[in-house]
User: Fold this.
Amino acid sequence: MSMRPPAILVLEDGRTFRGDAYGALGETYGEAVFTTGMTGYQETLTDPSYHRQVVVMTAPHIGNTGVNDEDPESGRIWVSGYVVRDPSRIASNWRSRRSLDEELVAQGIVGISGVDTRAITRHLRERGAMRCGVFSGDAAKADAATLVGKVQASPEMAGADLVGDVTTPRGYVVEPVGEHKFTVAAYDLGIKSMTPHRMAERGARVHVLPATATLEDVLALEPDGFFMSNGPGDPETTEETMVPIVRAVLERRIPVFGICFGNQILGKAFGFGTYKLKYGHRGINQPVQDRATGKVEVTAHNHGFAVDAPADRVSDTPFGRVEVSHVCLNDGVVEGLRALDVPAFSVQYHPEAAAGPHDAAYLFDRFTDLMAGSKSDTVRNDKKGQA
Amino acid sequence: MPKRTDLKSVLVVGSGPIVIGQAAEFDYSGTQACRVLRSEGLRVILVNSNPATIMTDPEVADATYVEPITPEFVEKIIAKERPDALLPTLGGQTALNTAVALAENGVLDKYNVELIGANIAAIQSGEDREKFKQIVDSIGAESARSVICHSMEDCLAGVDELGGYPVVVRPSFTMGGAGSGFAHNEEELRRIAGTGLALSPTTEVLLEESILGWKEYELELMRDKHDNVVVVCSIENFDPMGVHTGDSITVAPAMTLTDREYQELRDIGIAVIRAVGVDTGGCNIQFAVNPADGRIIVIEMNPRVSRSSALASKATGFPIAKIAARLAVGYTLDEIPNDITRETPASFEPALDYVVVKVPRFAFEKFPAADSTLTTTMKSVGEAMAIGRSFPEALQKALRSLEKKGSEFTWVGPVRDKAAVLADAARPTDGRINLLVEAYRAGASISELHESTKIDPWFLDQVLLIHETACELRDAERLSPELLHRVKRTGFSDKQIAGIRNLSEPVVRELRHSLGVRPVYKTVDTCAAEFAARTPYHYSSYDEETEVEPRDKPAVIILGSGPNRIGQGIEFDYSCVHASFALRDAGYETVMVNCNPETVSTDYDTSDRLYFEPLTLEDVLEIVDAERAAGPLAGVVVQLGGQTPLGLAQALKDAGVPVVGTSPEAIHLAEDRGAFGRVLAEAGLPAPKHGTAFSFAEAKAIADEIGYPVLVRPSYVLGGRGMEIVYDEVMLRAYIERATEISPEHPVLVDRFLDDAIEIDVDALFDGEELYLGGVMEHIEEAGIHSGDSACALPPITLGGHDIKRLRASTEAIARGVGVRGLINIQYALAGDILYVLEANPRASRTVPFVAKATAVPLAKAAARIGMGATVAELRAEGLLPRVGDGGTLPSDSPISVKEAVMPWSRFRTPEGSGVDVILGPEMRSTGEVMGIDADFGKAFAKSQAGAYGSLPLKGKAFVSVANRDKRSMVFPVKALHDLGFEILATDGTADVLRRNGIPATTVRKLSQGPGPDGEPTIVQMIVDGGIDLIVNTPFGVGSRLDGYEIRTAAVQAGKPCITTVQGFAAAVHGIEALQRGEIGIGSLQEYAEKINASRAEG
Assistant:
């Protein structure tokens, strides 16, 4: 049997878990969070929203299907550390190209295995998400008190502005599948590759823009729709950056769609606050109810922050009436916003899935409908103008 | 949307007797449904012919009909009860087929009964293969290429259309895959498709392209009326396509799928449930995935709760049947709370942070002639499930849960040549999993094993990990805590470690404890710890943190009965569940330990705490320690779960665990032949002459002394395992050679076989002072047929008051002599007016639920209370037992209850493809039982037959062929049958006897005579062609066996009643007479109980 070097997971509050090294040797820090998805570790690892987070997998067996070239959601692994119970010794899948262990080593991701991931999860559930460090090999040899000190000295997630780390350095275009029907300006705040793909499938040419793009850059594209992606960090940090741009877009009545971080930014643009959840929603089994239809969809979640909006009534905002369109049935957290007087909506969860169920894919149709409606309005207005 | 207010009453249809493919899981689901519906304020009417179920307890429904589940009887119930709705999706294929029949014959319309939980169109689209294939096409998914055939000509043409052999044959509308299989050539096709066409109620089979060796998956889905759909669980089959999922080792959640592939299955599953039109409720969908390219084929769906959904419920903590019942009365998923978290709704998909492994349990040892190759026809009789934090841990726990010698992996003993092991492993059998380790020991690689078995390499690597850990353990200089911890984490039992290290199990345990290597208990919570769990549903793991909560109330641990097997089935679960209810009512915290996912006992709702754990000494002792650390422990109940917990009694006591009720020493007194003989001698009770032999010479000497035929068996057995009647020395020698292999530590018992004896079963309670005679059952078949396979009547139909008095006195003497505190079951034989004691079992017996239902007394509850110190007098005062009288003094107007065994003959084939013989003997072979209850014996017997095998014929042709010794006793019933209008057919010898007795009989040709000169068919051919309505064939000795074998297997194949004892024949004639008079009514247990209690009160 191959023996892995020792490793230790150290939580900010002093609790430690000893296990075996996994992936690269060394030390790493981040916010300790757990995700309950039983499939899709490859998508999770490459989801930019996990930037600066040490992800605990509650599913015990990880790596069974290896790593393939089709499923990554971005160009690299973003988690800052990886905590699993039973890493697979072999990769078994016809699409697999290499093992997960090899991939983690290649990308320098420090992980730990063989720990009681359920005990860690219960700890985080009771105490809330917190900073942690993973130390393996020589780094694991230091005494626990020293390691706890190092963790406590690492940066906090609250107040963290991480978009700059994950956004694309320069814009690129995802061409529509089939006929070009719409043009979308999509801010990459940590976008997953499935998202523009889902829009392209519906005839959108998606201009993926870096987070540094200006309002002028957006308007220059003459977009039919404006999109804001998911991403890591505290939404409060967008007050001076994204929020003014969204407000300007809303004023121009360009259809807006936001996912996850994008939902929080749209909420802020409407004047709602945001707050940090105790331990967040991370998994692919979360029940979300569409409040208009009563229908429940099983959805993929990855968020530590949420929008603070009243779910029981319509709110008046500078952009007219806004309602909470979706809520999580587990805990009543706001999962979606819909403006009634401007063409804008957003969801806190992941209709692009990857990993996760496809129940919410209809939201991309809703976006294209909004763009189509807006286009025909424009045409009508133009005709009226001519007449 | 709240529940519907227009429904006031609902008829729930159960699944009938336990048969292969339809077992205790439907008791679990039906019980849940009844409870839910009642809690919603509906009047629940239940029909189920199986008395061993919890669902047929009178407390579970408002009106409980233990009546045959046939359209005729269910119609009578509908006419009487006039329910608003019928819920057919929780009683397996039996309930679904009955509902379809009642819809098609207009009964539901006539009485304005609404089918809820499913609609006929959906059932038909799900079950009709052609329609289902169209649906799969319509949603853009793929089915295996196939052709529908209605005749053998269609089949032969179909094979060409599919591009040749092998092809899969699947009959329509049969349960558990009955009649299906792989045909590799025309001969096999003719056999399998021929049977399939006969079995299918629509004479329809489907031939399919072979997808042997593909990966197999199942999804359990639920849908509500708002079209919300959730996938409750994914299940992956360890054994690739080709083995029925009921016979496969299965794993939850799926282990070898990427998210893309999993979501594709999920998308297809949801599209299927929508297109089929399951409006509310659960369904199960099976898929095959090509490991080479991921091509997905939808195999089939079941638009109802199934065995897999019971497994999924236990595996996830998401109670599918309970939620299906709520959905059926109008709720939506988001309106139903998750029981376990209590805060979150049921409209989610459970997340597992553990691995669940189910392993099937087979009974091929009971059917030595049967082919043990696993195919698409289900053959297993039970299953064990285990939960671990990893696959190796769960797999090894599951294998030891099987409680079968050799079921655990072993590294002891010789290893065969690699090529031989790999060749064997290519054939799926019940022991193939063990061949994997043998192959690794022989030096095989993962790829070689994959080549041979097609099992996914990931699973093979996990087994390799187990093997490598065993090698490391073997080679280690010393057992370090780290190594021991890792070994335990990989699922090894102390016993396995002991075997590998050449130590004893107690030494390993002591060492392990001294090194502090102990399991922790985790919780099944539906959500991978995302939310706090409110239900203590635990499993062990060698991990860091335990989740057992402290408690104040004294706890009682109840040990369940493990996987169902022939001889130890649902009846024992019934008693354990009752003990749990009774002791909870009496103020104890109840803790259930069991590993059978089908049962009510492993519902997290049944007891205060549930440990889903193997029932080995090691696992039980660890639970005892964990519960002792949590709070006071009043004791452990071992007498209710059958032989499994009983076998642990002494070891538990030796370890200082308080065993409540009958002491281990008393148990030994009853089970040890010598000790029990002394008890009988002291009480002055006779037993048949017997002796104990340790060698063939000794056995021969005993047999010579007491005279042939003799009954021989190993000591300490349940279900008559290894028991045989031998007629001469040659048979005796052959038996001893086999039997000593069965149980090397235990001697062989040789008993005089009592000819012409009436066998009697007694269940009684004893508190040390007072005896409560629970019930006296008179067997229909004579002594020598295993009591579990024999039909019996309660109250006894031919015994008088004097006999009952003798039985009572004997039972009390034995109970007192043994030292029983609780239940005792005694088997007697009455021969020549001498009452012989055959055996005594100081525990709950198989017949406890039957007796409880027939006499309207909760015997198992009373037994549990007596075990904890209550007296019969106290229980009488409390009202748990009748104030006066007992089961031996039933009022004279009490109804007669008949229990009939249900045999699995049609499931098994010899390797050559012919049927296995259907004769009854001292070895138990039945899988389940039914009860018929009515005012007199004839009617009750007719109902028991209808419940077990379909109604007895009212007219037609009866073929009679009996052994010489039976010819005299046959005359009367044959005469009666003739007078009832039946044409009697017989072969020459029997026909002569009949004619001499004034009964006209048509002579037919024996098989050995062959067809006649003008093409007159043999009797076997006539039976196969369906021309005979009733077959009576009693086998005896060795001589007449072969012809009889052909006759009986033909009867099974043709689906005609086949009676193999003269006593059974006489009872059947009684029943036919009652049926002909057309006066068979129905009655609920509640009505019967009211009547019995009223008569009792009058004294």
Q: What stands out?
A: Residues 251 and 319 of chain A are 8 Å apart (CA to CA). Chain A has two domains: 6-152, 163-381. DSSP finds ten helices and 20 strands in chain A.
